[in-house]
Amino acid sequence: MAVGIFDSGLGGLTVRDAIARRLPDLPLVYLGDNAHAPYGVRDAEDIFTLTCAGVERLWDEGCDLVILACNTASAAALRRMQENWVPDNKRVLGVFVPLIEALTERQWGDNSPPREVDVKHVALFATPATVASRAFQRELAFRAIGVDVEAQPCGGLVDAIEGGDRLLAEALVRSHVEALLRRMPRPEAAILGCTHYPLLEEVFQDALGPDVRVFSQASLVAESLADYLQRRPEMLGPGTDSAFLTTAAPDQVSRMAAGFLHRVIAFRAA
Ligand code: DGL
Known about the structure:
- The chain has helices at 13-22, 44-60, 71-84, 96-103, 128-133, 135-141, 157-162, 166-183, 201-208, 218-231, 250-261; strands at 3-7, 28-32, 65-68, 91-93, 115-116, 121-126, 144-145, 148-153, 189-192, 213-216, 243-246, 268-269.
- The protein is α/β, with parallel strands linked by helices.
- The chain folds into two domains: 3-94 and 218-269, 3-Layer(aba) Sandwich (Rossmann fold); 97-215, 3-Layer(aba) Sandwich (Rossmann fold).
- Helix 3 (71-84) links the parallel strand 3 (65-68) and strand 4 (91-93).
- The longest helix is centred in the middle third of the chain and has 18 residues, at 166-183.
- The model has no long low-confidence stretch (mean pLDDT 93).
- D-glutamic acid (DGL) binds next to helix 3.
- D-glutamic acid (DGL) binds at residues 7-9, 11, 37-40, 70-72, 127, 130, 158, 194-196.
């Protein structure tokens, strides 16, 4: 009854941790495509091909349901995968929709027409590929009207986080926030639209100031998965064991993961 979690690298571990806290008995198979990370600077075709390969690998592990714990893959590839590629007996879910439902105060599956919501000015921080896809704005437009979104592509940030360079990562967050605030001086909410960014949530909050509500995905995705599995228990695949897989050298990725989450995680080759 395992569920698969896919990310380009280590960022999805923030989502995996939140899911493990919310659903402690559920086996989770994590796959990081570290050999090809970061995805945020790749084009949509490339991201589609790599994401499909990763998802197929997780299906082979007995995970009929795969969560794309990666905004870049969710933004650039998910819609195309769901429309033309995912077979009827499998599911691939992304991380955007739970976030937008929280922002627009909607319950799951509320398909009523878009309506006015309290937040009017939203700052989006994400990878260059996610920003270029405009997927966030598209999903938001299905649910809310009159919301102004200003998006900041946070070039270099994923590399700095995965490389364990905390000082550089903090400096990049502050300069990306400053750049955004020049274009939108008073956002009411900020979306951390990359699964790596929760690791720097307090730096984002500090740079944005106390009046900005920062939305970060991990716990929202965990809650929405728990809800989904209650409604669709048949999507729990036949897999039985948790695992951490990577497409890069497992020893090196395990070391990076320890620096990233400050605990030992043993990756094996995908
Ligand atoms: N952590 C991923 C995301 O949520 C991707 C980062 C990357 O590979 O550029 O977008």
